[in-house]
């Protein structure tokens, strides 16, 4: 009779591999005629997106002007304001000024993040970080457009884009009577080349390839069309009879000047767009790049077109008959103003002149291939010559050769994603539907929204975020990744697909010394402070970005550091712990210990100011910004983890007692009473609330979704506390307490104004497991629970999930319960597994030796199997015969 390991291997060997599935998988959607599509939407979405590690593109336009709009991870405006530094002392002075005692302007509901975040010592509100709101920089800049122009096709039906998941190639077919256009677009995953293979029939006018960039309009955020500075209030006094103060742009004149217009050029077969950015500290001579093209397979008349209007594809967001922008979900999205800003920026871009380089093809029918490349001065000193060299190499390889390279790249990805793979469903139809859902996730799994759907490395001056928009010169939130959305354990680490999260250790490693300076200069404290100013892909500076309320969300450093800890805790990589994670964790723990203020009685350390995540400004005597739940949770977690790591590594013994003392004497969480019992608050004053405009997460959930203080093995009254809180709150990310605490086996939990949704089929369960794989396995308590949150009818198997402590878990179940469990250890530590067959005696076999393994059963809290696992060994768990 086969053991568990053999049964699991058999189930997966009988399934089609991801690489095999990819050969015939495509994703089709109609191309957006008017613009590149929503900022923030993923690659597999209603918008035709294409992405590589360094570049992402959106395909849009009609059949007559198929347009690729590009963003590249190092094409960034790196300017910043280096003045008027605002310190913790400044904040405290305003908060405790008697001139503010009667100022009561904090809303108790709705968006509670005021623009004028801090109180001024002279009375009233002051926006010290206003410059980061009114200036678009630092931010990612659009590279430009690659356009396939075929004027004869205007009026044709809007074509589809068909993306081939074996190699990422996107195909477009358009017909207009006897006129035909066939475009295959390929963006290189191994080399930074975009190739467009074009064939056409029956055209009367010459088709052409065109490169285009508009004259930059980033200054329109703070200037009008005539170049005059707009007025922005920086200080609003408490006494309305006193004059308000406006932002002083004149002080910034050395850095807030306009971009030079782009230029176009040609040299033989090569043609290009060239852009120079204003001078700044990272690139004192001005960052610059070239977008260059080369036509192969046909002759082309090349022309460099000078600055003029109407040379490119002009984006616009139409409005419906009620005046709403025609963007999916605009009426309910959290930040509709973001889309309004993009729409306004499109207007600026559409009205601006630009330059183009055009390659006109000959004949009514024919074929040609365009190779393009974007090379920056960040990548190569002689970037113009490097671009020519790369284009000639691409031409030599050919379109098919580039496609083969891409297929090899995706093959390697799919092979890697066999780890963490899920099979689900009882019937062949259910199995296929679930497999399609999980395949789409595998296709995108090399990247994430916080990486801008690319793979930027901050150490190489690269960066992006999902909300970096195409064809706009002013970006929302600086187009840099947000730090307070770091819920990565299930989707990335547990699923064994954690590589994209290397963004964060790379970012902190590059900025380590600057963040130490930030702690000293801004807070007057030792250690390292990771303020929620978006750290740019630039030469580090402690003052690079300040962001008002977000600078004092003190739990955010812990959220980022938790990701670094996960690299150790889930993968068991001791070198990473010793050389990367611990030096950063140590400095954060030093800062956290110094920040905590001992109370008068010596029995409690208070955390002030600590701002609830993205909510509440500073009020008189810190009414809303003292001892908030998110900060308490992450201070305790990081101080304890730092002590644990120091003990494990045998270092810094003198620091451990201080860390332990503060962690053990933090305030209790704020509680509020409702009819059904107590719920947990985010701060001691404001009743927990969630309304439109609030950020989608709630830091009162941190004890369960980040700190693991309340978990599947916690007392029932603590689990009930979090479930009751979620029942009342209904926040945007409301599922964590239910699923992580095993309270929603048969339902998708409620959120916003929507109630629970019953899980009636495998497809619904599969879709929910993409974001919450803890339904299938949960090890947050240190003990491994199998299938804690799936319906009893679920038929599902998973392979090589990662658990805390560095264990690889594989398991399968059907309507009768768990059928097989196998575990591979990456470290030599105790393995704690909740008995998959409660009440039955288990046989644990070392698969390598074939021998039985001694284990004990802990009955103190459920039925837990414990054995001394050895690194590299695999164990099969079976019911004893």
Multimer state: single chain
> Tell me, what's the shape?
globular
- Share of helical residues: 25-40%
Number of strands: 37
Q: What is the CA-based Rg, rounded?
A: 29 Å
First CA to last CA: what distance?
A: 11 Å
Largest sheet: 9 strands, antiparallel
Keywords:
single chain; 881 residues; alpha+beta; seven-stranded antiparallel sheet; 25% helix; globular
Describe this entry's structure for a reader:
Helices cover 25% and strands 24% of the residues. The chain contains 17 helices and 37 strands. The radius of gyration is 29 Å and the shape is globular. The N and C termini lie close together (11 Å).
Q: Could you give a short description of this structure?
A:
This protein has 881 residues and is α+β, with helices and mostly antiparallel strands.
Spell out the blueprint of helices and strands.
Elements lengths: L3 H10 L4 H5 L3 E5 L18 E3 L3 E6 L4 E13 L10 H8 L22 E2 L4 E3 L4 H4 L4 E11 L10 E5 L5 E7 L2 E9 L5 E9 L6 E7 L18 E5 L7 E2 L16 E5 L2 E7 L11 E9 L3 E9 L27 H16 L2 E8 L4 E11 L6 H34 L5 E3 L3 H17 L44 H6 L8 H21 L32 H16 L2 H22 L1 E2 L6 E2 L22 H21 L6 H9 L6 E4 L2 E4 L21 H4 L10 H14 L5 H6 L6 E2 L8 E2 L3 H10 L5 E2 L6 E2 L9 E8 L3 E8 L2 E9 L4 E5 L7 E5 L9 E3 L5 E5 L5 E6 L2
Antiparallel strand pairs: 1-8, 2-3, 3-4, 4-7, 5-6, 6-13, 7-12, 8-9, 9-10, 10-11, 11-20, 12-19, 13-14, 15-16, 16-17, 17-20, 18-19, 21-30, 22-23, 24-25, 26-27, 28-29, 30-31, 31-32, 32-37, 33-36, 34-37, 35-36
């Amino acid at each position: 009779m086969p053991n568990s390991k053999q049964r699991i291997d058999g189930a997966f060997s009988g399934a089609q591999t991801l690489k095999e599935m990819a050969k015939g998988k495509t994703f089709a959607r109609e191309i957006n005629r008017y613009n590149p599509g929503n900022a923030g939407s993923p690659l597999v979405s209603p918008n035709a997106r294409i992405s590589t590690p360094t570049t992402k593109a959106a395909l849009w336009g009609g059949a007559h002007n198929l347009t690729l709009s590009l963003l590249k991870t190092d094409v960034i405006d790196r300017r910043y304001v280096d003045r008027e530094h605002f310190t913790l002392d400044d904040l405290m002075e305003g908060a405790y000024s008697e001139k503010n005692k009667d100022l009561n302007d904090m809303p108790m509901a709705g968006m509670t993040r005021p623009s004028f975040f801090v109180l001024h010592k002279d009375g009233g509100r002051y926006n010290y970080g206003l410059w980061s709101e009114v200036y678009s920089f630092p931010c990612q800049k659009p590279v430009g457009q690659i356009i396939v122009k075929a004027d004869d096709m205007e009026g044709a039906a809007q074509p589809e884009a068909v993306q081939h998941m074996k190699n990422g190639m996107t195909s477009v077919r358009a017909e207009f009577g006897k006129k035909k256009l066939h475009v295959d677009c390929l963006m290189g995953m191994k080399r930074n080349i975009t190739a467009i293979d074009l064939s056409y029939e029956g055209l009367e006018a010459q088709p052409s390839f065109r490169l285009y960039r508009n004259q930059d309009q980033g200054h329109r955020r703070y200037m009008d069309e005539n170049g005059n500075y707009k007025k922005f209030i920086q200080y609003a006094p408490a006494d309305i009879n006193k004059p308000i103060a406006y932002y002083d742009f004149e002080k910034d004149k050395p850095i807030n000047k306009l971009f030079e217009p782009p230029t176009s050029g040609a040299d033989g077969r090569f043609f290009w767009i060239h852009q120079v950015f204003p001078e700044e500290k990272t690139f004192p001579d001005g960052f610059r790049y070239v977008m260059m093209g080369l036509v192969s397979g046909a002759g082309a008349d090349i022309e460099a077109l000078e600055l003029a209007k109407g040379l490119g594809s002009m984006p616009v967001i139409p409005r419906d008959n009620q005046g709403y922008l025609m963007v999916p979900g605009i009426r309910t999205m959290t930040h509709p103003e973001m889309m309004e800003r993009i729409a306004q920026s499109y207007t600026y871009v559409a009205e601006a002149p630009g330059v183009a380089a055009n390659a006109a093809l000959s004949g009514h029918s024919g074929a040609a291939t365009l190779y393009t490349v974007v090379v920056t001065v960040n990548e190569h000193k002689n970037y113009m010559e490097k671009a020519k060299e790369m284009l000639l190499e691409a031409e030599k390889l050919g379109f098919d050769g580039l496609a083969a390279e891409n297929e090899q790249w995706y093959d390697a990805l799919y092979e890697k994603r066999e780890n963490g793979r899920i099979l689900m469903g009882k019937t062949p139809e259910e199995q296929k539907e679930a497999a399609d859902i999980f395949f789409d996730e595998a296709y995108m799994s090399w990247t994430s929204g916080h990486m801008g759907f690319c793979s930027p490395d901050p150490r190489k001056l690269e960066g992006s975020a999902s909300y970096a928009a195409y064809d706009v010169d002013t970006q929302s939130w600086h187009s840099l990744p947000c730090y307070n959305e770091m819920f990565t354990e299930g989707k990335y680490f547990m699923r064994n697909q954690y590589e994209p999260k290397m963004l964060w250790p790379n970012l902190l490693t590059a900025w380590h010394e600057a963040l130490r300076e930030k702690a000293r200069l801004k807070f007057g404290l030792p250690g390292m402070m990771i303020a929620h100013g978006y750290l740019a892909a630039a030469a580090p500076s402690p003052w690079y970005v300040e962001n008002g309320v977000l600078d004092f969300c003190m739990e955010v450093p812990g959220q980022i550091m938790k990701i670094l800890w996960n690299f150790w805790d889930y993968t068991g990589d001791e070198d990473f712990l010793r050389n990367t994670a611990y030096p950063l964790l140590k400095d954060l723990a030093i800062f956290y210990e110094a920040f905590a203020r001992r109370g008068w009685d010596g029995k409690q350390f208070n955390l002030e100011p600590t701002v609830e995540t993205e909510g509440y400004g500073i009020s008189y005597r810190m009414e809303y910004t003292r001892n908030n739940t998110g900060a308490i949770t992450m201070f305790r977690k990081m101080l304890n983890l730092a002590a644990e790591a120091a003990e494990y590594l045998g270092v810094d013994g003198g620091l451990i007692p201080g860390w332990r003392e503060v962690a053990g004497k933090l305030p209790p969480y704020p509680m509020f009473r409702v009819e059904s019992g107590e719920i947990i608050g985010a701060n001691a004053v404001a009743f927990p609330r969630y309304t439109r405009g609030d950020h989608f997460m709630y830091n009162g959930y941190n004890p369960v979704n980040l700190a693991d203080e309340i978990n599947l093995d916690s007392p029932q009254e603590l689990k009930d506390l979090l479930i009751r809180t979620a029942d009342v709150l209904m926040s945007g990310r409301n599922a964590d307490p239910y699923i992580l605490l095993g309270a929603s086996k048969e339902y998708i939990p409620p959120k916003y104004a929507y109630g629970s949704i019953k899980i009636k089929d495998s497809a619904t369960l599969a879709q929910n497991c993409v974001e919450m794989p803890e339904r299938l396995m949960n090890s947050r308590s240190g003990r491994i629970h199998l299938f804690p949150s799936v319906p009893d009818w679920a038929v599902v198997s998973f392979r090589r999930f990662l658990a805390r402590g560095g264990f690889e878990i594989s398991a399968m179940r059907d309507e009768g319960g768990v059928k097989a469990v196998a575990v591979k250890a990456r470290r030599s530590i105790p393995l704690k597994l909740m008995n998959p067959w409660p009440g039955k005696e288990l046989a644990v076999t070392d698969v390598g030796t074939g021998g039985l393994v001694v284990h004990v059963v802990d009955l103190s809290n459920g039925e837990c199997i414990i054995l001394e696992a050895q690194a590299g060994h695999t164990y099969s768990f079976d019911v004893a015969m």
